[in-house]
Design brief:
The complex is a heterotrimer. Chain A is mainly α. Chain A contains 2 helices and no strands. Chain B is built from 17 helices and no strands. In chain B, helix 10 runs antiparallel to helix 12. Chain B is globular, with a radius of gyration of 24 Å. By secondary structure, chain C is an alpha+beta fold. Chain C is globular and about 55 Å long. Classes of the chains: A mainly alpha, B mainly alpha, C alpha+beta.
């Protein structure tokens, strides 16, 4: 028994997993997405403007 | 809102970071002496090739890979523990989150080093980027490890921002300019307003949720590295969860040791990291030890019972072959650990029975170690005539008496006992990784059985690895506070609010 | 396209190891010291060993003893585990069914060596060396594909190497045919071990050609594979003894 390699879908899958360089592309996408998200999160956090009190030593208790 | 920690508290936490005293330089010197021989031998390995190891055919992987799995294991628990405890709002987590999260980052860094040490052509590392194939399990591991390292570093950094800002504001006047610059750059202009805090807490919670599956994935993928080859002994479906459980187990061990090391290093920390932490995390440790035993039993029982022709020689090597000392040594260490942990939970009743005297326990420990070594050496003259059986019974008796005798001492010394148990777990888990890799590799299908024992290079590089891990730890905490100051303050504030 | 395959008749094989020696000379496999060889560092692309491997070679009690030997090139599996686990495609199956190794791309992670159930892959633990004048008798052939070394020229330290069915001989035979302006015939190409086999126990040819010797032999009732349960779909055929 083997995979039904005559089907285009499976040929595509084989191409996907077997092409040198695509693994690196996948990792690059993953890393790129992670780094971008982390960077945006950091910017979102520090960009918060608030007219009230500053220099709180710890998060305000709810 | 007023700070809860007093000026004295803050002084105690900040001033050691600017004191490069004898203690610090001595630690660095000792660690460097431990690390350097391995580095020198690595350079030799680079020039000569991997022939300087004891690797051969079919034992193509050895101590470096064992270290790799072990380091990934210890790195996993830090973040997962801290993330789970954060999501569950467990209060006693607060002082130790920083150390737990940093252990993950440092462990993963050193784990990555192992892969490079193990490569025949480290100069071609770039090929994994140029030609990486999705089908190869090694690429999954690279993906998982990179993602986990990034996310864990991000989680650690998020946690650090308010404390870096605090360091920026309380840097002593005489501190070097580059340190002032470092803190002001890294703090990203954190002002600590209400909105910033709200957003930071949201981000930390989200990252905690993401970290848990990534952490689990990394360890499962590491087990897939082995399962995807068609070698006997690695095909068991339990390998994935077994790796995860072992990872959490050894990770807690390392966390205990690191926290104790940090408090010994800076005595002021003792007022923040109290016995409560040891007692509470001890419960999780006990649970993990039972889960670990259950998985080990499962693994052993199934393979032993099915008597599959390819799998059984591998298991036999562990149960009564050349890997028996490592396998049973691991089990003995884990039994001792579990006993110590449970003893710590039982009220201490002074007993006049000589069986429960510490001296009896120590004598019995020595006897147990001697009999174990005699059994492990497998001396031919001891064969037959019930000598081996006698030794085995003697060992069991000595071992039980040793545990009983030392119980009182364990109960009276919470922190040293926990550290001893943790050290046992770390060593036992290293042996477990060894027992997963080596019996399979030495028992290939149609290649004659071989043996493997690490050479000086491999041992020195293993020591170097742990030296580097400790060095990163020591240096990192010379720049950043080893407990999360703002988390501790928030915890105190919560206590006051709840009328504590 | 051809599907190259080797058939080894164990009935005819006398375990003389001539194939092993021919392979060594043809493919420039480095020699190692006896101590290193004892430690499992010997490189024999084509190995000869007693079967079953894990018990003493002689079975039975004198004078009723019997010994089985097997010779083992690469199986050139159709579902090769080494190819599936290589992170950089340094090993691959070409369109003619030969599992090939790109020595210039291999990073030496040894995943393929661990994956291979047959142990046909070897690692260069040290830089290759030869004893005495052996170094002056290296095979000068060199096969490069897209600038990467794949042929018998000496491999560097730290890479994995393996039996290639002497693929450089295929390339040479094709080039010769082209130079002489004629069609390439399948019988112009045989690996060194097949050419040298004392008892003519080895056959080589195109498995897709129904008239070739190998496809005729593959229909034999004695035809079998090594470790058929490995799931790797090994291609090298054995004709069993007895």
């Amino acid at each position: 028994m083997n995979f039904p390699m005559e089907k285009p879908l499976f040929q595509f899958f084989y191409w996907l997993v077997n092409t040198p360089g695509l693994g690196s592309v996948a990792i690059a996408l993953l890393v790129g997405a992670a780094v971008t998200i982390f960077f945006l999160t950091l910017r979102w956090i520090v960009s918060a403007k608030n007219e009230g009190e500053e220099g709180l030593p710890f998060p305000p208790q709810h | 809102m007023q700070p809860i920690l007093t000026a004295q508290d803050r002084e105690n936490l900040v001033s050691p970071l600017f004191k490069f005293d004898r203690q610090f330089w001595m630690t660095i010197a000792v660690l460097s002496v431990i690390t350097l021989p391995g580095l020198a031998l690595y350079v030799r390995q680079l020039f000569l090739g991997l022939g300087v190891t004891d690797l051969n055919r079919p034992v193509f992987w050895g101590a470096y890979l064992v270290n790799f799995i072990f380091l990934i294991g210890i790195s996993m628990a830090g973040t997962v523990i801290s993330a789970v405890l954060h999501l569950l709002h467990i209060e006693w987590r607060r002082p130790i989150t920083r150390i737990a999260e940093s252990l993950t980052v440092f462990g993963l860094m050193t784990a990555g080093l192992q892969i490079i040490m193990d490569m025949g052509r480290p100069d071609r590392l770039i090929n994994t980027i140029l030609y990486g194939r999705l089908q190869a399990p090694l690429m999954w591991d690279i993906a998982s490890l990179t993602l986990y390292l990034l996310t864990a570093s991000f989680a650690l950094y998020l946690q650090l921002i308010p404390d870096i800002a605090f360091m920026r504001d309380s840097t002593p006047e005489n501190a070097p300019t580059w340190r002032k610059k470092l803190y002001s750059t890294l703090s990203l202009g954190w002002r600590g307003n209400k909105e910033q805090w709200t957003r930071l807490e949201k981000a930390i919670t989200t990252v905690s949720v993401i970290l848990i599956p990534i952490g689990v994935s990394l360890h499962t993928v590491t087990s897939w590295l082995f399962s995807t080859t068609v070698q006997p002994g690695w095909k068991s479906t339990i390998l994935g969860p077994y790796f995860v459980v072992g990872a959490i187990y050894s990770g807690i061990g390392l966390l205990f040791i690191a926290v104790t090391f940090a408090t010994q290093y800076n005595h002021h920390l003792k007022s923040y990291i109290t016995d409560t932490f040891y007692k509470n995390l001890g419960w999780i440790f006990i649970v993990m030890s039972f889960v670990w035993f259950y998985f080990t039993l499962n693994e052993t029982l199934v393979v032993t019972t099915e008597q599959e022709t390819l799998e059984f020689p591998v298991m036999a090597a562990k149960l009564f072959g050349e890997f028996a000392p490592a396998f049973w040594g691991m089990n003995v260490l884990m039994v001792a650990t579990t006993w110590i942990l449970i003893a710590l939970k039982v009220p201490n009743k002074a007993s006049s029975n000589p069986l429960f005297k510490t001296t009896t326990g120590l004598v019995m420990t020595v006897l147990a170690v001697v009999t174990f070594i005699a059994l492990a050496l497998n001396i031919p003259t001891l064969h037959g005539a019930f000598v081996e059986l006698g030794l085995l019974i003697a060992f069991i008796v000595f071992f039980v008496l040793a545990l009983l005798g030392l119980t009182g001492w364990f109960q009276a010394h919470l922190i040293p006992s926990t550290v001893i148990a943790s050290a046992f777990v770390l060593f036992g888990m290293w042996l477990e990784r060894w027992n997963i890799l080596m019996p399979t590799l030495t028992h290939a299908r149609i290649i004659p059985y071989t043996t493997y024992f690490p050479t000086v290079t491999e041992v020195a590089l293993t020591i170097s690895t742990f030296g580097i891990l400790t060095l990163i730890f020591v240096v990192f905490y010379k720049f950043f506070p080893s407990i999360s100051i703002w988390e501790v303050e928030a915890g105190r504030a919560l206590e006051i609010k709840n009328g504590g | 396209m051809a599907n190259w395959c080797m058939v080894i008749d164990l009935e005819k094989c006398v375990a003389c190891q001539a194939c092993s020696v021919a392979c060594r000379m043809e493919n420039n496999t480095p020699v190692v010291s006896p101590e290193e060889a004892k430690n499992g560092r010997a490189i024999r692309w084509n190995d000869v060993f007693p079967l079953p491997v894990h018990i003493a070679p002689e079975q039975g009690e004198y004078p009723n003893v019997k010994t089985h030997y097997a010779t083992r090139p690469c199986m050139h599996c159709e579902n090769a585990p080494c190819v599936k686990t290589c992170p950089v495609q340094a090993t691959y199956i070409d369109e003619e069914g030969i599992v090939r190794q790109n020595y210039d791309r291999c990073i030496g992670c040894r995943f393929c060596t661990v994956s291979c159930p047959y142990g046909v892959r070897y690692f260069n633990w040290y830089a290759p060396q030869w004893e005495g004048t052996l170094e002056n008798h290296l095979n000068p052939d060199e096969l490069s594909v897209n600038g990467s070394l794949e042929g018998p020229a000496v491999r560097p330290v730290g890479v994995v190497e393996k039996c290639t069915y002497c693929v450089h001989r295929l390339v040479k035979a094709r080039e010769r045919a082209a130079a002489e302006g004629r069609e390439f015939r399948a019988d112009e190409y045989v690996p060194a071990c097949v050419q040298t086999c004392t008892g003519k126990a080895r056959y080589f040819g195109d498995l897709d050609d129904p008239d070739s010797t190998v496809s005729q032999l593959s229909k034999s009732l004695r035809a079998t594979h090594l470790l058929e349960d490995s799931g790797a779909h090994p291609k090298t055929l054995y004709l069993a003894e007895g």
